[in-house]
Amino acid sequence: MKPILASLAATAALFASSGPQAQTMRPFLDFKTADAIRDHCLANAGKAGHSVAVAVFDDGGDLASYSNHGASPAAAAVAQWKGRSAAVYRRSTRETAAWNAPTAPMMATMEGGVPLFARDGTPIGGVGVSGASSEFDAECGTRAAEAAGLRVSRPEPGSE
């Protein structure tokens, strides 16, 4: 019994002396922001007469928000492909298409996916849009991200 009490006392002393550890919060994409991006893009597309699918992903490439608002089933799959690519490569799909690496995992090779960055430049996800022209898809995602207070590219070093 005494060895067990001694072990417990030693363990308690070890944890008590370490004190609380401060953690720095990293910006992240919350569901409210992801939904706002999705809804803004759907509204803009509707005003322009387009039916699009919108897929918003977090920085790990996990789906955070999605809607296929009258777009085809194929557009739904393409929006997810574009959005996940933008999130995990942290580049627009226009850029990754230019890399000419169609067999790279999760890499989209057509415009319409944009990465999402917090105001400080921290990568937090990506949005993919499909159902209209690739140019419109990219613009729709960009405007929605900016309306949510996010960037779609990293700030240049020393620019802020």
TrEMBL record:
The keyword Signal appears for this protein: yes
Source species, domain of life: Bacteria
Residue ranges of the TM segments: none
InterPro entries to which the protein is assigned, alphabetical: GlcG_carb_metab_protein, PduO/GlcC-like, PduO/GlcC-like_sf
Secretion signal span: 1-22
UniProt keyword terms in alphabetical order: Signal
Name of the molecule in the record: Uncharacterized conserved protein GlcG, DUF336 family
